[in-house]
Amino acid sequence: LRRLELLPAEEAAQAQAASAQPEQVRAVVDFLAGKGGHTSQALQSFIQNSDSQLYLHITVHEPMVQKHLESLQSSCGNGLEAGAVQRLTNLLLVEGLTDIQQKEHDILQVETTRGLPKAAKSIPLEKLFLPLSKVSIPPRISVTVGVAGIGKSTLVKLFVRSWAKGEINRDIVFVLPLTFRELNTYERLSAERLICSAFPHITEPGCTSAGAARTLLILDGLDEFKTPLDFSNAVVCTDPKKEIPVDNLITNIIRGNLLQEVSVWVTSRPAAARQIPSGLVDRMTEIRGFGAAEMKDFLDQMFLDNRDLSSQVLQHIRANRSLHVLCTIPGFCWISASSIAYFLKQSSDQSQEATVVPRTLSEIYSYYFKMALSGDCLEKPREPLRTEQAVNTSKKLVGSVGRLAFYGLLRKKHVFYEQDMKAFGVDLSLLHSSLSTRLLLKEDTQASTAYYFSHLTIQEFLAALYYYTSAKRAIFDLFAESGVSWPKLGFLSHFRSAVQRALQAEDGQLDIFIRFLSGLLSPQVTQLLAGWLLPKEEPGGWRSQAVGVLRGCLHAEHAVSSRAVNAMRCLHEMRHTDTAQAVEEAMRSGSLAGMLSPINCSALAYLLQVSDVCLEETNLSNCLTYDACKSLLSQLLFCHNLRLDNNQFKDDVMELLGSVLSVKDCQIQRLR
User: Fold this and answer.
1) Helix (H) / strand (E) containing 409
2) Could you read off the pLDDT of 252-272 as tens digits, one per residue?
């Protein structure tokens, strides 16, 4: 502007332009345009040519901006599929976390809600940090939640890439993406050092400060942070140069004691997001899963060179309602589709023995691990490992990485570093084989190297494998990390201990682990993994005794809980389906009346989620007593179309139903 010959009347407008917001700058340009002459033409040309970087050119030093954009482009510019971009451009605008999101395992959240999104408004990605109305202000603290594998980190990459290209949020001058994996490598940090260590080019000599320019700090993956956030007891800090524990730094930034002018965006799994008090969150959004068309597009993209295989995989997924629901999660869909494709490939080989059609979680993951260990990867073919070499590798894997997975699960730890690998005796050379792209991923940060499982369920399956193989010879409780406990002898004793631990866990963190552990006792999984991850000969007595342990959890008289439903799913993993089949047949024939014992109520609650009988309408007419209705109440919440007529209900039952309809989790749309 200074190089332009401004008219005297234009000098006041020039002075304002240096600190103006983009909208104000355009207003100045409009004012100058009314004056005519070369000045307005030059400014208009400058506006058009500079595109989204206008505000950056006016406010901050250009070399710093260029370095920052190059840095972001190199870290976030690649690896985004077209399907992911389309799905993530619209988020669900929610008012807060529901009870099930705060208390249950991610997989159980999806299973209980049948993978259907909540009735909520959507918000486009480009408006995520804009005011919702003309009289509101932009949010300072935004939180985006989503279950494991739904695409939170992909969403962050998509946003950063779109911003760097000037496609969205041109009012934001700096976007500073950080992950909690990186923050785990520090013990103490100051607010100033936090920015400098991650983005050193911002404070290089010759680069001026952004000052009042709007900045967005992204903190991706709160669920991977090593220290829980304690907002009640965190020490207040207002000095940006003072080094404090990293968890205190994060709480002070979120509270606004530090970096008050910076907008903060946190991504997290739902259960971890509850650490942030709702009163501090200005906007909460949720990532939705696949719709039917999106799942098909995802599989077509996955098997780009073989559309017939894509159709077969989709047909198999749709034939299994439980699997279809879970495949609304992209990460889980990728694992399942890989396993099913591997199964189809094996079954088409006439030289192979009869293969097991994967119907349970344990069978899906058994195929996946067998495929990974043999090096037979569908999307990136590699030279297959020799069988003997693959078997030896698999045994080492269960012994070291499985132990890491198990104790990490107990500590709620999902990211590991080199010191963790050494502590658990993990042979890092294993991680440079084909296993590294399918099981345990590696990420180099500035301060260290981070390792993490490709999906939460991969960690849980490995943990179950470790526990299964160790329980046969362990004489002490495997849950006691010190190794000192009362003696526990025999596999069944350890299995019973694991079931009790899972039932007592308030947040359901061991639910999928115990489901996999149960599945490893099924004949089908034993057949699949015999000689690979399991011994070739297994005594059959364990399965029947383990069934007795699980059924013993279902005789309680109180309300049917998520733990009871998970116990039914464990029985399904073991292919023990007698109880569920009997109740389902009674539902089809309308003869449920008089047979709803506590264990059958648990079976009914399980069927509400998985049975095709309940797909369009849940018909519980003329079969419920007061006690049965009371015990099933927490599970009836998620039935969209519910028939309860001719049950002779009295006022006390009506009061219960009335209380259910006002619960935040309630998804009942039609009640008869």
Assistant:
1) helix 387-410
2) 999 999 999 999 999 999 999
